[in-house]
Amino acid sequence: MKYFQILFAIATAFTIPLQGFSQTFEFDNPIAEQRADPWVHKTDAGTYYLIATVPEYDRIVIRKANSINGLKNAEEKVVWRKHEKGVMGHHIWAPELHRIDGKWYIHFAAGEAENIWNIRMWVLSNPADDPMEGEWKEEGQIKTRRESFSLDATTFEHKGKRYLIWAQN
Questions:
Q1: Does the pTM exceed 0.90?
Q2: Are the C-beta atoms of residues 80 and 62 closer than 8 Å to each other?
Q3: For 159, phi and psi rounded to 5 degrees?
Q4: Which residues, listed in sequence order, are joined to residue 125 by a DSSP beta bridge?
Q5: How far is CA 137 from the centre of its chain?
Q6: Residue 25: its pLDDT value, please?
Q7: What is the dihedral of CA 167, 90, 115, 152, to 10 degrees?
Q8: Domain segments of the chain: what residues?
Q9: What SUPFAM superfamilies does this protein's entry cite (predicted)?
């Protein structure tokens, strides 16, 4: 126990307060009622976009506002709807909105209309400057080495290299 006390004392002795470097950020919860798996994207211009799972699991909607609190009352726009048959026909879950190399992408999970638990990852793209405008194109399934239940894909860049991570059974 004494070892951990000494380690804690050393670690905190070299902690530098960052007052003046941090920004106070406040918002009122909930930002959106009846929305699961929320994802907020803030552009360099300060525009906020909210995308999340809707209770019917049948479409992808986006909200846009000039502040995070503004998302609460922002109008939603349906940008994509599930297929009536086949793939992407059920359980439209966990959409994420990303701006990559000047293009918008939505990563999301979806099951088949006839086999609702056959959930896989999918991608939509849109070249418009604003993801609430333009046409969303189905880019297809994100294929993995194993063809099994997969969802919750997210992407990020680290040291100039783009990565995609997800959950898979």
A1: no
A2: no
A3: 50, 45
A4: 105, 137
A5: 18
A6: 66
A7: 0
A8: 32-168
A9: Arabinanase/levansucrase/invertase (SSF75005)
In this predicted model, what pLDDT tens digit does every residue of 92-134 receive, in sequence order? 999 999 999 999 999 999 999 999 999 999 999 999 999 999 9
> Chain-centre distance of CA 25, in angstroms?
20
Let me know: does 102 contact 128? Beta carbons within 8 Å: no
Average pLDDT over residues 33-54: 96
CATH number of 32-168: 2.115.10.20
Show Cβ contacts of residue 70 under 8 Å, excluding neighbours closer than 6 positions.
Answer: 48
Please, are residues 134 and 126 in contact by the beta-carbon 8 Å criterion?
yes
Answer for the pair 145, 161: CB distance below 8 angstroms, yes or no.
Answer: no
Nearest to 99, CA basis, from 79, 128, 140: 128
Query: Tell me, what's the pLDDT at 15?
Result: 41
| Residue 165: partners with Cβ closer than 8 Å, 6 or more residues away | 153, 154, 155, 156
* CA–CA dist 57, 7 (Å, integer): 49
DSSP secondary structure code for residue 30 in this structure = P
Which residue type sits at 24?
Answer: T
65's tokens: 């506002």
Largest CA distance in the chain: 64
CB 135 within 8 A of CB 157: no
Mean pLDDT across 55-60: 98
